[in-house]
Design brief:
By secondary structure, the protein is mostly helical. It has one domain. The chain contains 10 helices and no strands.
Length: 222
């Protein structure tokens, strides 16, 4: 917890606007900091409960995945600029019959807490556990999950004939995108602590004047 709290405090002076956004909302409001502290302590207890480092690394990876998933809705709303009735409709998909205002506040609060904890998991993985799985492999997983989540939400929000036509390709790709995310998660969880590189990351790196496009499969762990 001390390492995590220190990471949040350092983030407030970061050059990354998105990181500063979440850190400031935690630090400037004592009540929000307390809520985040309780939330994050519960997450970290799930990691520290394991007595051996390899099991702790797996637990931290699992925690990081859950935080990626929990951040996705707010990220989608922000990046897609979803407002008005479409925002109401999408929140209803995830919150059911909950009052709209309550759903908005709950989602924003959850996003801030989860984003702060997400920064902390990456910090702990890098500086305490030396786990490369929560560096580039996790970033690629987050990218793929966001792609799947966008397809899911775009299809859910399609109403007009034009919107539905635009979503045909996304609808057909959803099973493949979900499979890619599932297999990537399995591969990252299976990465041994000594493995410094994930094949999926390597093949996406530019070589010379070429850039390899996204792969939809090939989830090898070595």
């Amino acid at each position: 917890m001390e390492e995590s709290e220190s990471r949040v405090e350092m983030t407030a002076s970061s050059l990354a606007p998105a990181d500063v956004f979440v850190a400031e909302r935690i630090l400037v409001r004592p009540s929000e900091f307390t809520r985040w502290e309780v939330h994050h302590d519960r997450l970290m207890r799930g990691v520290s409960a394991h007595g051996r480092l390899p099991q702790q690394m797996i637990a931290l990876r699992t925690t990081a995945f859950s935080l990626v998933h929990r951040r996705a809705l707010f990220e989608y709303l922000r990046h897609r600029h979803v407002t008005g009735e479409k925002r109401r409709k999408l929140l209803a998909v995830f919150y059911g019959c909950t009052d709209y205002t309550s759903a908005v506040l709950a989602e924003h609060g959850s996003y801030v807490r989860c984003s702060s904890s997400y920064l902390c998991t990456q910090h702990l993985a890098e500086h305490l556990m030396r786990d490369p799985a929560l560096d580039e492999p996790l970033a690629l997983y987050e990218e793929w999950y966001a792609e799947y989540f966008r397809a899911f939400c775009d299809v859910e929000l399609a109403e007009t004939e034009e919107e539905m036509q635009a979503c045909i390709a996304q609808e057909s790709l959803k099973p493949l995108l979900k499979h890619r995310v599932t297999e990537a998660r399995k591969a990252i969880l299976a990465m041994p602590p000594t493995q410094r590189e994930w094949r999926e990351v390597r093949i996406r790196q530019p070589t010379g004047d070429t850039q390899v496009l996204k792969a939809l499969s090939l989830f090898e762990t070595n």
